[in-house]
Amino acid sequence: MATKTGHSAPKNDVFETAPNWHRSLAAAVRDPDRLIDLLGLPESLRQPAREAAELFPLLVPESYLARIESGNPRDPLLLQVLPLGAEKLEVPGFVSDALDEAASRRAPGLLQKYAGRALMIAAGACAVHCRYCFRRHYDYGAEPRRLDEWEPAFAEIEADDSLREILLSGGDPLMLTDARLEALCHRLAEIGHLKRLRLHTRLPIVLPDRITPQLIDLLTGLRLTPIVVVHANHPRELVDDCAEALRTLVCAGISVLNQSVLLRGVNDSADVLAELSERLIELGVMPYYLHQFDKVAGGAHFEVPEQEGRAIVEELRRRLPGYAVPRYVREVPGEDYKRPLA
Asked: Same domain, yes or no, for 234 and 333?
């Protein structure tokens, strides 16, 4: 049975008038001991979790925590957020900048890997710390925060009329307040050759109350066509308030796609991934990518061999209509597009 945390944040006038999602974020669990206590996990996990969280802090919202099975250290949702001793192991080939993003930097906060689109590191924070994150070592402190600090990036975008699409990433762009996000979006909309704005976000999955009427109005009121790419790895993530948040985006006429990462112990089976695709389609979300794990330091225990991934995708093709089978890809630094693996 899933559990709820019962954690409460300090009450004051500012807190009481803050948007719901701010309050949900403030109530998120950040202490490994508290997580282990709330979920009734084995004592043997406590010290490794403390040590791993010193390298990459724990952060998990109550909404997501409520979907985790109590007492089960192998729960696939838990494995995505629980710090483990394996994160401290140094494994050859697993590095801090797994995608060599430093080589793609065009201006502070602006990366370009592929033709026609560029990516902005719009925020340095997330609402959950996924233990497999390929940017877990990223220096977000070096990136712009205020709108005026983004001007060198805007200048680069304005000077390149081959760009048609800007991706907002991070961190998570929906960690920005509505006012800051609106200012950034409207500044991009002033650049005439841009046609689309894509937001890569995990918040609809882990902090669903971020999907507010105000946010919907912001996204649908832009000159740029909005596309939202969410990140769910397991069908049990797509329930209750998360499902409602996804329906809200879809019913607003926004194209919503999902990308997953193939993760050992989480979704490394055709049964799980087929159920995930079916659930996504029911909610109006298109399965987009299934990523081969990026070789980031601290995450080697999540890697699934490519040969095994190919077999899983082949089985998905037998079970599902073509539109429900995500493209199995690996991102290779310097290549012109994501490399198809199956």
From this structure: yes
